[in-house]
Known about the structure:
It is a single chain. Helix content is 94%, strand content 0%. The protein is mainly alpha-helical. It has a domain at 44-80. The model has no long low-confidence stretch (mean pLDDT 88).
Amino acid sequence: xxxxxxxxxxxxxxxxxxxxxxxxxxxxxxxxxxxxxxxxxxxxxxxxxxxxxxxxxxxxxxxxxxxxxxxxxxxxxxxxxxxxxxxxxxxxx
Length: 93
């Protein structure tokens, strides 16, 4: 019985080293996975920013086209209103 207790006591340092090794390997794996996920997340954010930038540029182009078309319509409307105004005004005496 005493012999078994001595063997168990002598194996603790080896067990402690094994446990520390497993903890170290586990920690390294966790950090590696964490960094890979952070890299992936950064790439996704970059891709999203590129898509938003492209969408913003397309929106600006569409607004510019709409503004130009609106200005053309206003000019056309002014041109059409001039003869109508001239016809509505009473002749001057």
